[in-house]
């Protein structure tokens, strides 16, 4: 009896073809995006979303057209941080148009698709959800990329949730993001996790990867040098094993977190060290892209 | 997955898909040689796994709709998440020219003109808002491709039958 590979016949289902169509839609949609910038860590609680939101508004304030995608489907907060309206998605003939915040940043997040305080749940068999949940979430992330009418963007920032598996899921969809920002904090425990992500990215051949050291000391309201926020070795000592180029050192400033939580991230417009750090990050991101071309007529 | 008729040594051809509505899937295959039929019965877990890939057993009858998997897979979503365009802020009114899929003459993203009867409008209005735009687009596409100017309930029934839109 012939085996699978020996039986060749018309396949009306053409599942590989359907998967290929999905990929093609994604590539076509992102053709209008100048640079996809992934904000990753591997570790939770290091401030990826806040960095994403503040970088997005900073780039927008510098004149760039910016989109922000919250890839953290189960713990979304980017819509809130960007001040996106909960009824801001538009269902139009050419697709779903993203919500636009007061800074002009266009965004997409499961936060916009869920009722307030409602957890994300999928329809399906009630037990052994792990069998299919990953595939469902990968498909939803693909649709966020391919079916949202992002339009012409200079930057699409993607806030990737914790876990190297989530970085892998993102790279399955976009194997070569134009830039990756690897966010860490001055904690040896956090850095040990981030180091795994750095290895993951290096083995995937992703570059450039810029290290963003967040919460590097506490910025006193009175000004002056940042004070230590964590005990133990300083940031240089902690991040030395990562052996990566540092793109920004962002001090902790409660004003930044308060404004960001309120949907008004100040970004480079923040007073003091945070603002300077965000401005430096914007310059580094723009430099890595090779300078932003001015929009055509 | 392929099915081979051992007696004829021929690959069986997909013939029909059935979704009974209990989460299971039935796919019927026929041997082109002897005509024997075999039904593949998938349990809810197997059906869900295939569905999670965003593919259709037996091939697609309509093009993939924007965020169709997100909309069909989310449980208890925010029903007010999607707004239609500015020309149509509160849904559609009977007799209005709305809800086409691609406007040749309009600005990008605008709806091409297709008219909906009162009955069709009411029926579409019963579709949950979260998926209504997607469903509307499918019916409008169907009408446009066939030169149908007014979408009636009969047109919707015909589209469901021809396109295999179980559950819409």
In short:
The complex is a heterodimer of chains A (297) and B (168). Chain A has 297 residues and is of the alpha/beta class.
List the main descriptive attributes of the protein structure presented here:
heterodimer; A: 297 residues; alpha/beta; Rossmann fold; 8-stranded mixed sheet; two-stranded antiparallel ribbon; 10 strands; globular; B: 168 residues; alpha+beta; N-terminal domain of TfIIb; 2 domains; 3-stranded antiparallel sheet; 3-stranded mixed sheet
Please name the two chains that share the biggest interface, counting residues whose Cβ lies under 8 Å from a Cβ on the partner chain: A-B, 54 and 56 residues
How many angstroms separate the termini of chain A? 65 Å
Strand content of chain B: 15-25%
Total count of domains of chain B: 2
Read across the widest sheet of chain B, the strand sequence of neighbours is 3-4-5
CATH homologous superfamily title of chain A: P-loop containing nucleotide triphosphate hydrolases
Query: What is the subunit organization of this protein?
Result: heterodimer
Number of helices of chain B: 5
SSE order of chain A: HEHEHEEEEHEHEHEHEHH
Radius of gyration of chain B: 19 Å
Cα Rg of chain A: 20 Å
| Most strands sheet of chain B | 3 strands, antiparallel
What is the level 1 CATH name of chain A?
Answer: Alpha Beta
Helix content of chain A: 25-40%
Q: What is the architecture of chain A at the second tier of CATH? A: 3-Layer(aba) Sandwich
What is the 3D shape of chain A?
globular
Helix segment count of chain A? 9
The backbone outline of chain B, from C-alpha atoms, is globular
